[in-house]
Protein 1
Amino acid sequence: MISNCSYIGKGLAFTLELTFGGVAIGLILGCLLSVLRHCRICIALINGWVSVIRGTPLILQMSIIYFSFPSLMGVKLSMLSAGIISFGLNSSAYVAEILRSGIESLPKGQFEAAQTLGIPNFFLWKDIILPQVILNILPAMINEVIALLKDTTLISVIGGMDIMRRSQIIAAEQFEYFMPLCTAAAYYYCLVLLIEFVGRKIERRMGYAKNS
Amino acid sequence: MLKIHNASKSFGSTRVLDDVNINVAKSEILGLAGPSGSGKSTLLRCIQKLEHLDSGSVECNEKTGFMFQDFQLFPHMTVLANLLYAPNLGKKNTNCCKNNEKRAKAMLKNLGIASKIHEYPGSLSGGQKQRVALARSLMMNPGVLLCDEPTSGLDVATTMDVVSLLKSIGETGVTMVIASHDLDFLTKISDRIILLREGKIVADMKAKNHKNPVDYLKKYYA
């Protein structure tokens, strides 16, 4: 039992690498996409990207990146790289949408108040709009990280040795499914609790009496 | 000081301002009255350049300050930070910043909210937010202060406070244009009242020249 737990636990680092690699790419690309959305030439392109990513299964996007990239571009990606890239690209579309809703939820008066005080655009975004947007979207972003963590189980389809894949290996070897799968569930649940805890801490730290 | 010349503005097919002409003298307190949708707020927003006129012009040779009906304080900044952010922008650790801080603290003390200096806007009452918004506008040293419905949502006692506050600001030589549907408030504070209806000026009067200015203005509402 202990050796099974430790074998499954060895997939923890791989799962975390996939999750945080994906989140990092998703955040950077998502921010970039929402900034470029304000540029007229890019709107159609970005809307198309978001629509395609949201309209196709993640497992399919990952398969395209892992299986077809070698023949298309002559590049063989490792499972970890293919996973991080596909989770990151997938997440970017959702992050861009979360940011869009966060910006649109701010009252127009905040922009106007800054304008009447003569605050330049750069400072308006940096000091007035973004701090409020970040607080507004924090719960949705925590959800996105949790969803991404759970989506990393799809890496087992291309053979990645994450928590899920390891539990399946044990189950197949020992013809016993309940305990290995419950062990994997416990690992994922603990990770989710940890992310929720950190999220709540950040929210509390950034929190202020809103209702202005 | 402030000249509005043939100002017209439409939203879709609705004409909100129709050929409005107003001259405001220095240090004058002008009240803009009128029913809802008469164009008071739009006129203020056009003066502040938050809206663009379809035709006509606004000439103002002084800096303008704007007080929003819903205050629009920055909710993630304390009261003091709300006051200091714009005037201190780009001036790190200079004497100017220190002077601004002294001025902000003195202003908050005068407005009776010195104890709220480190609180966030969300924990303030409507009247306190009103004062912070007023102080924030004044920190920019405006020559013309535009106030959009400064007493909306305030109780009678707080409204009286706002009257005396705005009067004391008027006495310092700041020109003010105040839009309000509250005729009683406007007659108490304004040197002159203009009544707008469907985007047109229907009355332009000096409150002190009338025995009962509220009744006089109410006739135009009918």
Protein 2
Amino acid sequence: MGRTIGEVVLDLNNVSLSFGGVKALSDISFDVREHEVRAIIGPNGAGKSSMLNVINGVYRPQEGEIVLRGEHFSRMSPYKAAQSGIARTFQHIALFKGMSVLDNIMTGRTLKMKSNLVQQAFRLGPAWREELEHRAKVEEIIDFLEIQHIRKTPVGRLPYGLQKRVDLGRALAMEPQILLLDEPMAGMNVEEKQDMSRFILDVNDQLGTTIVLIEHDMGVVMDISDRVVVLDYGKKIGDGTPDEVRSNEEVISAYLGASH
Amino acid sequence: MSNDVRPQSLSTFPRLLMQHAQVRPNHPATREKYLGIWQTWTWSQVAEEVRAMACGLAQLGFKRGDNLAIIGDNRPRLYWAMAAAQCLGGVPVPMYQDAVAGEMVFVLQDAGIKFAIVEDQEQVDKLLENRSQCPDLQHILYDDPRGLRHYSQTFLHGLDEVREMGRIHNRNHPDFLDAEIEKGGPDDVSVMLYTSGTTGKPKGVCQTQASFIEAGRIGCEFDRLGPDDNILSYLPMAWVGDHLFSFAQAAWAGFTINCPESSDTVMTDLREIGPSYYFAPPRVFENLLTTVMIRMEDAGALKRGMFHYFMEVARRCGAEILDGKPVAAGDRLLYAFGNLLVYGPLKNVLGMSRIRVAYTAGAAIGPDLFRFYRSIGVNLKQLYGSTETCAAVCLQPDGQIKLDTVGPPAPGVEVKIADSGEVLVRGKVMLKEYYKRPDATAEVIDAEGYFHTGDAGFFDEDGHLKIIDRAKDVGKLANGAMFAPNYIENKLKFFPQIKEAVCFGHDRSEVCAFINIDMGAVGNWAERRGIAYSGYVDLATKGEVLQLVQECVEQANAELAHDPMLADSQVHRFIVLHKELDPDDDELTRTRKVRRGFIADKYGALIDALYSGKTSQFIETEVKFEDGRKGKVSADLKIREAKTCPVAARRAA
């Protein structure tokens, strides 16, 4: 446990991705170390979300490879990614709006369920016991994220900031080793951003989860990340600690415009 | 049980605890909802936990006479910490958990705190921030280790670790704690509760074991509370009310206290536990009613019609039925129907289905609010008391409830009215002293041993005490008529749209008021009318909202005009404030009582405007956010005139 940053767990080598003539990512390489908070930043359309989609196998890059704990993948698939302990949240919330918070987080346990469909449908012994175990785990997450008061509330009725927290909860239910967060703080007010930052740091610190996040808000990124990759028009223009990135000329011009 | 005779030796709380552990070892003592499940500790388990914690504290160097600060929400271990400190002859000092770091300094210094047991990282951070100003503070113990793993300070200890230390210590010295408990006596100080400080610096009120045990005994025997009762413990532990109900009475009667999962889940937890005994300040009852009313407004026409019809029936005869007074058979039948269709389900939603006795205290309750709960069959009663009197001076007996009095003096408590109209109290429940403040003690306890409460009141023809207001708040209008600001404010506050009101009128010809709207109720009202608003300031300054408030004020005026004593106190002009009065800005005490003097100073410009005939006034105020940062809000506030009713009867005479 704990925040001793370890070995490289995820390594992207010369990844390129294009949709027809549009080059979304060109020749990008970077690595993620165990237990670190790794941020990917860049202006709109820089390829940040594509990058995440490549990591968890939604997009298949035309070139390059992904090395996950020493295992080489030229083609990752979402299922394989999930099985190897990669979970993610979405920029646009993709929860089941009519289901309660509890049930939504329960869906994050799907991959961990061992009993079969019939057992589950009729709540036979093993399925029953298993559900209790999963529920206990989910309750821990509810406690961790401090959302006890909305446990039984349908997600659709919650304010945006809380929905984002539930989204994080569902990803945590997978007990991931690597957590991909796609703009976890988009559309939040200052207080909600502070709360979310604290939860992200808590996840990283207490559960030891490695975190890769995309974020727009430079202030937040600089505060909570260990290392930052900067993308612009599908190219990597910077990589390093927040301080290094902040003083990087190319990054400054991409973000603030060259004339400044 | 009320008829069991307790040996004289059970004269301290630790002895009571050990007694329960022997007599009813498997009876639930404490419950807490954790990870979605109600966890239960029996009396024998609680005794073990307290024993371990006390031994652990002793190992860390906690000694007889030391004060132990306790800061946090209502957690079982924090209640046990009180008992643990008492076992060792120390004094628990519960503090308000929502106070910002700076506000804690005074109490920490005044009480010379060396040991603190706190709930979580938030409280630890506050103490660390204050540490340079509190050199005495030696050890901080925390309940929830979350987020504290990287705190390397050696004076920080998790309660788990302390419990283990204590267990080992207890194994090696099995007689140690019992000997310590034996050393304690009824005249030891059992707890120190700081007054909320409506005026001046807070003072530490020292109550002995004997006084709180007496207060617990009075309450339990009065309402026949026994081990099978249940109470939800959700009020600040630093408040005398919580200490009396969740600690002293629970320790006397041996009933079960239930700690909510978090402060946001109290409503749900209340419903799940269905307590038989309930205690809340009027504000909580008010909020509950406001929520109900809002939801009824949103309900379908049929439900709404049914609700209003049966509430009218309840208003007519509900309280009388509860008091066992004669009621016409037709009304009885209608009430029974109403119970089936409205009151029963309503009580169930509020978590009050099983309530035998509910009390309110801490501030005057609006008669309409009080009548509402009694009329739906909740046996809500009032009690009167203060921190200095263990909140046990007067209690309303079943069947003799009057809306405007607080009942006759409790058994064994002497109450007398001074010539000035001030209420004086003498009895076992009285404070021993203010901590290190002989001057202040001498001020409130006179030569005959009476405690001066500072409240103005009188006995009615049945010997029930009626409290009018704080003695120092009662003033006179320029024409000599009585001006009791609290009374008027309570009238205004009963409207769900009005959250807080502050009236001015002493030495003036007319009464004027500041009003705070209730964001929930007014926001919902605005939404249903399609009135767009961006936030509190915007909503509070909308013309429609001012009109709404004006209607409330005028209705209150009409009611005031009925009472010849108070007819002159009708509100002539008012301002709807642009920000909520807030304890963080020192405008309210932590128990949410209005600090008049402070508000009058801070908003002096507004008061001048009210009395100078202006129609609007610009104001800018500093606000403190929860994290201690400061900001400013400003607004141009309109001054509204309210219609007043003629006071014909008296003017003509």
